[in-house]
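Hi all, a correction to my earlier message: I attached the wrong file for Pyrimidine dimer DNA glycosylase. Here's the right sequence:
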Amino acid sequence: MRIWSLHPRYLDRQGLTACWREALLAQAVLAGTTRGYTRHPQLDRFRAAPDPLAAVAAYLVGVADEASDRGYRFDRTRIRETGAGVAPIPVTTGQLALEWRHLAAKLAARSPETAAAWAEVGEPDPHPLFVPVVGGVEPWERATSPVE
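and the right structure:
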């Protein structure tokens, strides 16, 4: 499971679709409606939010908005809450940098044109739910190299 801290604009079609599916799975885990992935470390940041389901809903809304901007129709009725009014969740600059390298490697392999489009980005924007703070890689991150 990879729930990107990066803005979904950087994801290629496959990445955006996978992000949507994985965030829906995260929502199911947080709602207690599935047994799998209950201890996945990427869910820690949502669990730490005052309202974890609202936080993951805000994340899903951001992904669905990007999909709409591209002309895709993700089924927003699958989002359990509105996600409105959720306070931004901090994400470290080190985490964003790690994910940026990870995504660049994935895009170079499967979507070179998308990789080329973003090649000049130095510091990527975070997903709208997240706000960058100075720091290293997040403690919940399990990636040991730029590519999982």
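Sorry for the mix-up. The chain has a mean pLDDT of 94.
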